[in-house]
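Researcher: Structure for this, please.
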Amino acid sequence: MIDDSCPLCSASQISAFHEDRLRRYHRCDVCRLIFVPQSFHLSLVEEKAEYDFHENSPDDSGYRRFLSRLFEPMNALLLPTSAGLDFGSGPGPTLSVMFEESGHSVSLYDPFYAPDTASLNRQYDFVTATEVVEHFCNPAEDLQRLWSCVRPGGLLGIMTKQAMDRSSFANWHYKNDQTHVSFFSRETFKWFAENGHAKLTFIGSDVILLEKSEQSSLHIFTQ
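Model: Predicted structure, token format:
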């Protein structure tokens, strides 16, 4: 066991999971989150420098196809003229444009590129986080913030690669990005859905939809 606690569920049942030449990875035996200890995290300056290399744009048809894996199933569930939030919109917001083209309104939040926290002080019909949660240094705090922005009956759409078993993880390219510090498995999302009173749907290998029930508690973590 590791002398540490899970940054998602606060459990103390933590095991060593993997180690490479750059970092160590631990796994929570309760919520099954795999995480990189804080001592291996990049500084905010180093992290932003990595994101500045991203060249995503609404004009990039390939990027639109990539995002359509979340956009299409989520859009099919929304009522006309729904209001949404794109959390972690990045330097070239694109998913928000796709929803707006379908008649919805979308607010943006990104800690580096759209840092106005006023957008986090209301609830929305839908919230999206594409290729975002793997960057969460404090996943309990960040997921709580996301979940609090979803109105009862609303949708949270997440896109992230899901962690598999130990042998697959060892050869997984996704872990090699040093800005990736939290790795979610199906078991982790099931834990989140159970504690958040949400209906959970997996679509393909990297899209997760969570429908917030009318009885969902605003605070689901026991930090």
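Researcher: Any notable elements?
Model: The chain has a mean pLDDT of 92. Strands lie at 14-19, 24-28, 34-35, 83-87, 105-109, 124-130, 150-159, 182-183, 198-203, 207-212.
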